[in-house]
Automatic annotation (TrEMBL), chain A:
The lineage of its organism: Eukaryota, Metazoa, Chordata, Craniata, Vertebrata. Its main location: endoplasmic reticulum. It is found in: Endoplasmic reticulum; Golgi apparatus, cis-Golgi network. Keywords: Endoplasmic reticulum, Golgi apparatus, Neurogenesis. Belongs to the TRAPP small subunits family. BET3 subfamily. One of its GO terms (cellular component) is cis-Golgi network. Pfam families: TRAPP (PF04051). It comes from Sinocyclocheilus anshuiensis. This is Trafficking protein particle complex subunit 6B. Component of a transport protein particle (TRAPP) complex that may function in specific stages of inter-organelle traffic. Specifically involved in the early development of neural circuitry, likely by controlling the frequency and amplitude of intracellular calcium transients implicated in the regulation of neuron differentiation and survival. The gene is LOC107671866.
From TrEMBL, chain B:
Gene3D superfamilies: 3.30.450.70. It comes from the Eukaryota. This is Trafficking protein particle complex subunit 2-like protein. It holds the Pfam family Sedlin_N. The lineage of its organism: Eukaryota, Metazoa, Chordata, Craniata, Vertebrata. Its main location: cytoplasm.
């Protein structure tokens, strides 16, 4: 689908742009947080549009399931492959073939760059949750490309 | 200006009723799923209607009590229009969530709606 490729290319360009704006070795952190904040604002707007016609959510788990199914499908054209929770505010969302990593590599070569490719999406999830009334911290890790895990830690307000 | 203050007060007190409705104490689960909350409470002069989005944004419409021609489904469609316009505002990258809305498009939709309701 044409629009999928468009977003992937745009995303890569955004990362390149933010990366080149930050010169210096220790700037990886700033780059990541800039991307994350971008994702946050986009997530806020997106979730407003996506939940316009849905019934009210029952609880936190309902919200997380929405993120894993409807939200992920709307953005990445596929669902989250696995959702785990400890029922105490920690959720792990596993995507075995994360769309924004598939073009990067299927091996270990670019592992150090992976965090930059996950930052925007972490922000996206955090922004979406934030506007649904759920405060959280979202981090991501890659063990084997293109699979990755997003960890959501709910913050009690 | 006195009139405006009265409206602010009415809307403010209606927020408690909104909270009560969405916390759903003792209500059937089916009722809670709707975004439209219906008539919140009638006062002498006004009828107050509520609507809460999934993003916890609360819309309140205050209608003159003497306006008996305004039907429930018309109020519902007013809320839908509000919700749609608000979504557009939210998606505007120049809008910072939480700030007062300054969008002319939003204002014009609201004004048109209010004129139609009279």
């Amino acid at each position: 689908m044409a629009d999928e490729a468009l977003f992937q290319f745009l995303h890569s360009e955004i990362i390149q742009y933010v990366n080149s704006a930050e010169t210096g070795e220790s700037e990886n952190g700033r780059c990541v947080s800039k991307l994350e904040n971008m994702g946050f604002r986009v997530g806020q707007g997106l979730i407003e549009r996506f939940t316009k016609d849905t019934p009210r959510f029952k609880d936190e788990l309902d919200v997380m399931k929405f993120i894993c199914k409807d939200f992920w499908t709307s953005v990445f054209k596929k669902q989250i492959d696995n959702l785990r929770t400890n029922h105490q505010g920690i959720y792990v969302l596993q995507d075995n073939k994360f769309r924004l990593l598939t073009q990067l590599s299927a091996g270990k070569q670019y592992m150090e760059h992976a965090p930059k490719f996950l930052a925007f999406t972490c922000g996206l999830v955090r922004g979406a949750l934030s506007n649904l009334g759920v405060k959280s911290i979202v981090t991501a890790e890659v063990s084997v490309m293109p699979a990755c895990k997003f960890q959501v830690m709910i913050q009690k307000m | 200006l006195n009139g405006e203050l009265k409206f602010h007060y009415t809307v403010h007190t209606s927020l408690d009723v909104v909270e009560e409705k969405i916390s759903g104490v003792g209500k059937a689960l089916a009722d809670q799923r709707e975004l439209y909350l219906g008539l919140l409470y009638p006062t002498e002069d006004y009828k107050v209607y509520g609507y809460v989005t999934n993003s916890k944004v609360k819309f309140v419409i205050v209608v003159d009590s003497s306006n008996t021609s305004l039907r429930d489904n018309e109020i519902r469609s007013m809320f839908r229009k509000l919700h749609n316009s608000f979504t557009d505002v939210m998606c505007n990258p120049f809008y910072n969530p939480g700030d007062p809305i300054q969008s002319k498009a939003f204002d014009s939709i609201v004004s048109t709606m209010m004129v139609q309701a009279c």
